[in-house]
Amino acid sequence: MKRSLHIVSGCVIAAGSVIKNGEVVYSDKNVTFQSFLVQLYKYLQVDYPKFYKMDNLSKLGWLASEVLLKEEAIVKQYKPEEIGLLLTNANSSLEADVKYFQTIEMASPALFVYTLPNILNGEICIRNNFKGENACFIFGAFNAAFIKEYADDLFANNKLKLCICGWVDVLGEDYKAALYLVGDHATASSIAFTEANMNKAFENVNGQS
Question: Based on the structure, what is the number of domains in the chain?
Answer without folding.
Answer: 1
